[in-house]
Every structure is written in structure tokens, then in C-alpha cells.
Design goal:
homodimer, 352 residues, alpha/beta, five-stranded parallel beta sheet, five-stranded mixed beta sheet
Chain lengths: 352, 352
């Protein structure tokens, strides 16, 4: 039956294609290999031709983006498009699939490993503890800020971030891990959320699954400027670490225990810091105000109310209901501050 | 060289093993196939034996958890452990790897597709828009709450959630997608964050990559109670949808346009809802209070302060500084409410 099959090559190319994928190549009338989403290992096309006994045509971005010829051919016979990793992670592939289906061409995917499914195994980090993935591109500015914010949001929830690095097939450019680290440090200097500094523990995974792979972990101050060799690379900023993750990092990756640190500990939710500080401040003000209200019932009622709301703030914080905690402590402060505003002589110094 | 190789079978078993994986099986002195992390298709062991010409030993959880025999054998020769999907996603596999390395056994992974890398391609959802993944287990309570909270946190950031469903190899039990949907609805009835109701658009992906796969999308009211056939299944709650994602859902999955909706729109940050409501309420109270302070300077000073903080709250909200917005509106409320507490006769009804 005619149609278009997207076949994932996995991480290594001809060695990592699946048995089913190779069978499909053998039976396809036309076989294309796209070369623009990730650097292909040398000689993959030739080795795939040898293994399948079929001619493989190397195609560039424009050919897949246009897609007209692929779709026309897939109306008459089986067309295989070989892609690096798992198919469809790249938007150009999904776009081609959508247009093919719209023209009545049946499509099918042969799945394979992607760098994102491979990282947990190679690093020992739990897959369930990864947050959103992000790509860093050249040029700094917005790209660095986006990556930085994603790491920050993931760390707030204790999650790990995998940062993929730009690859530009047309020039062969690929963003270096050291450049990515500098990008994060620049964003830190600008935004100052406390996401990254010399002490932050990071991991650089290079050439996973495709020969000569390396996974290196350590503090930023030690890894910045290091030469990690040819692409592809991924930089990981781990979040909260389970003890089994720490064990795997030490044992499997031989990462020194003094290098491994929990990056999420420093990132305490803003609300949490705010409420803790204001609760303390308000309790002192409350004590002082109480000493000065000398039996005035209305003042005592107000102070009692303020006290309740300070306790509420602490309780909400412990329940993780941060917004309500902030609202309560703000309200308590407002009540107490009204005393100062309305009777400067008696209550003017309650905040000191 | 002796050692332990973890070989991912991908999603289909013998058909989805990679060329390199199959070569490793052929060269291994001992080949184990674990059967407890996911339901294996019928006859996989036999077909793997036929394809590789090697005997394959089916092993259960206890054998891998203990691991003593595997590690001893891997000290003397090459041992292959075949696992479903991509190796190391399961903690028992990583634990075995850590212990093997601790005993000086070299380990290696042959990667393959996992359900998490396959989902974007099969659904058309962008991989970068997935948040944390979570597993739902039987028994409700804590498990349902955890899943519900993960969906909520992902939706707050506009992200999709993949919900994996419990599989218990010893009894053959696997959690049904309909049970998972009911679990989410129960958690909603309990927690009321507005995460899910009959209108919520969800996707159920069944048997991806392993024959007879189906991907169905639609509103909860239509999908609840539907029979989705044999496992494995994944339930996806999509977040904010890019127009290319909507297009793929309509075209590739043939999901009706009226069924597709953006689930993140309803989830406005709690802080945002809170501040908007309280700003309105405080402005009315402020107007009433002003009408009653009849030239009292202290009261006017207090009201002026309250007004500043109400404006601050709005400004902070527009800047995305939610915590400061909540703190400010809480403070303004406290100030205004002190009037009521201190002078019931004049200000008792400012909140109405």
C-alpha cells in the first residue's frame, strides 16, 4: 500500500536503526535521508545503502519543507524518510506529515531513541524529575533569557532541565556547551534570580549513543571553558536530587561527591522568603503595639485580628498555599500599620 | 570484554530492537529478558531467540532486584539484559547498573524508543511543550492528588502532561484510561482548581508502536467510560496549543475541531484571580470610607496609603510580579479594615 513512513534512526544512524525500520527501507520504493536536524555520523548513508541494498537519497531542509515531491511519490508507492532520533520531534517533519495526510497519503512512524529518552539512563537522573526541555541558540539576549527562565521555573519545582544546543546544518555550526554555560551566567548577571553561579552542579552529555560518548558532571567553575569535543551535546542543570540519583552520579559517572549539589535548595519560592521575613517583622510590631494599647478595646480587637492573620499566613505557607499566605501577612501588616498612621504618637515606632 | 549491556527493545519488542542491539544479543554469553516493567507482546521471547540464534531467559522483578547472579556472570562474560522501551527509565535497572559498576563491572546502554519520545510524533504535540510526566496508580487518594497537582502546575505554565498508567506484572493488572479520567474528576471535586471537567480536551494513546495502536482525542464527557482495549495506554492532558499542534490534531488524528480546546486558558493563576477580585472590592470600600472621614487628617492619610497600595497591586500584577501584587492588596485591605475595627459606627459597612 502506498504511503509515507517516517523512520527514526536513533542516536547512532545505521547501527541504531530498528529491525523493522530496516525492513521498511528494503521494501520502500524511494528512500530519503534528511541531514539537517542533527549532525549525521560520517558514512551513514553508504552503510545504510549497504545494509538495505537500496539507494538512499540525502536531502536538505528545503526539500522536506517543500515536500511536494515526497507527497506525490507517496501517492503512488511507499516512500521512506529517514530521520535522526525519534521522528516528529522536529516541526518540519510533523508539518510534512500533516500535509501528506491532508492529501490523503497514509503516514506511519517507526520510533527510535531520542536524546531526551536516553539522558535519564546515561546520567542516572529520574525521567519523572525532568521539567520542560529547552533549546539554547546563538546570539544571547532573548534565547538566553528564555533558557534561564525555564531552568528557574523547573528549579522552583525541584525539576531537572535538559538544555539542547543549536545545530545549524547549513554552516555546520553547533553551539558549544561552554558558550551555553556563559549564556546562563550572563542571564544570571542580568536577572539575578540565583539560578546559577560557580557552585552550581551541571552535567554535560556529549555524543550520547553515537560513539565516543562522554558524560561529565561538576561545578560550573570547573566546567566552564572545558573543551567537550564534537557535537551533539546537551547541558543538564539538575534540580532536587533523590539519593539514588546522587548514588548513580557518583558510581556510574564517577562524579566526585563534593561536586554534586542540590541546585533547587537555594531557589526558595519568593512567596516563602517574603512571608517568613514579614511574619517575623509583624510579630515584633504586634508585641510592641500590644504593650501600648493600655486597655483600649478597639485597639485590642485590631491587634487580635492581626495576630490571627499572622498565624494564618504561617499555616497557609506550611500547606503550600503561598498566595493565601502572602495575602494574609499583607493584611496583618496593613492592620498594624493603621495604628501607626492613625496614632503616630502612640504607635509611631512599632516597626522600629 | 566482559560486562553488562542493557538493551532497549523499544515499543514493539523483537521488531523494534535495533541492529546494534540484536548484534549484542548474538555475541552475549547470557541473555536475559525482563518482563515486569511493561506488558510484553505475545511470543517476543521466542521471536528474539529465532532472530538472534541465542537462548533468551525470561526473568522477573526479584531476579533483577537481587541482581547477584547477573553481576557475577557479567564479571566473566558479556551479559545482555533486554528491557522494554529505553533502558534505565525504570529505577530497578539503574539500581542494577550502579551496583554492577560498584563491583567493577563495565556497563553500557543500547538506547531505543520510549513512550515519552514517541508521544509527540503520534499526537502532533510539541515535545518542548510537555511538562513533568507522572504515573497514576490504583487506589486513588494520594496518587490522584499527585497526578492532579502535576497537571495543574503544568497547565499554569501552559504545558502538556503525559500521564502513564500503572502496570502490575505480577497480576497482569493495568490501570484503565477511563479509571484515570475518573480519578482526575474525583480530585477535581475535592480540590476545585478548575483543572478538569466534562469540557476538558484530552488524548488517549493506546499501544503506541506495538501493533493495533490508536490515538483518540476528545472532550472528557465523550471519552469517559470508553473502552480503549488492551494496554499500554497513556492519557495526555494538553495545555496551551500552538496552531500547528491544533492542525496536526485535526488532520493526523482526525479529531473534530470543536473537540479541541486550550485547557490552559481557564487556569488563570490563583494570584491573578485573587488580586483582580480584591482590587475591585477594595476600591469600593475605599470610596465609601472616603465619604465618611469628613476631613479627619489621620483617616485621610490612611486612605491615601490604601489607595497607593491598591494601585501598586495592579501594577505588580501587570508586571507579572504576582507575590508582590498579593502582598500589596492584602496590605491595603488591612489598612481599610482597621477603620472598621477601630470605628464600627462610622466605617462598619464599608465592605457592605
Amino acid at each position: 500500500m502506498p504511503g509515507l513512513i517516517f523512520i527514526g534512526l536513533g542516536l547512532a544512524g545505521d547501527r541504531s536503526v530498528t529491525v523493522e525500520g530496516l525492513d521498511c527501507v528494503r521494501r520502500a520504493e524511494k528512500v530519503y535521508l534528511e541531514s539537517y536536524t542533527s549532525p549525521l555520523p560520517m558514512g551513514v548513508k553508504e552503510r545504510l545503502e549497504e545494509a538495505s541494498g537500496r539507494g538512499v537519497v540525502l536531502v536538505e531542509r528545503g526539500f522536506v519543507e517543500d515536500g511536494g515531491r515526497i507527497i506525490e511519490e507517496a501517492k503512488r508507492g511507499v516512500v521512506a524518510l529517514l530521520v535522526y532520533g525519534d521522528p516528529m520531534v522536529a516541526t518540519t517533519h510533523m508539518d510534512l506529515r500533516v500535509r501528506a495526510e491532508a492529501e490523503g497519503v497514509k503516514t506511519r512512524l517507526i520510533h527510535n531513541a531520542s536524546i531526551l529518552s536516553a539522558l535519564p539512563g546515561e546520567t542516572g537522573l529520574h525521567i519523572y524529575s525532568f521539567g520542560r526541555t529547552v533549546t539554547m541558540t546563538r546570539g544571547g539576549g532573548v534565547s538566553h533569557t528564555t533558557v534561564y527562565n525555564t531552568v528557574f521555573e523547573n528549579l522552583l519545582r525541584g525539576l531537572h532541565t535538559a538544555i539542547l544546543l543549536e545545530y545549524d546544518y547549513s554552516t555546520g555550526f553547533s553551539l558549544d556547551p561552554s558558550a551555553a554555560i556563559e549564556g546562563l551566567l550572563e542571564a544570571e548577571a542580568d536577572l539575578r534570580y540565583g539560578v546559577i553561579d560557580g557552585e552550581t552542579f551541571i552535567i554535560v552529555a556529549s555524543r550520547i549513543g553515537c560513539g565516543g560518548q562522554s558524560v561529565v558532571g561538576g561545578r560550573v567553575e570547573r566546567l566552564r571553558g572545558v573543551e567537550f569535543g564534537p557535537p551533539p551535546h546537551t547541558v543538564i542543570v539538575p534540580g532536587r536530587l533523590h539519593f539514588t540519583e546522587v548514588e548513580a552520579l557518583k558510581m556510574v559517572l564517577k562524579i566526585g561527591g563534593d561536586e554534586v549539589s542540590d541546585n533547587s535548595e537555594r531557589i526558595v519560592r519568593l512567596a516563602r522568603r517574603m512571608v517568613t521575613r514579614y511574619v517575623e517583622k509583624s510579630r515584633s510590631a504586634l508585641d510592641r503595639a500590644r504593650g501600648r494599647c493600655s486597655g483600649d478595646e478597639r485597639h485590642e480587637l485590631l491587634i487580635e485580628n492581626a495576630e490571627c492573620y499572622i498565624s494564618d499566613a504561617e499555616r497557609f505557607l506550611n500547606q503550600g498555599r503561598d498566595e493565601l499566605a502572602v495575602l494574609s501577612i499583607g493584611y496583618a501588616e496593613g492592620l498594624l500599620d493603621s495604628l501607626r498612621l492613625l496614632d503616630q504618637e502612640r504607635f509611631g515606632d512599632i516597626w522600629r
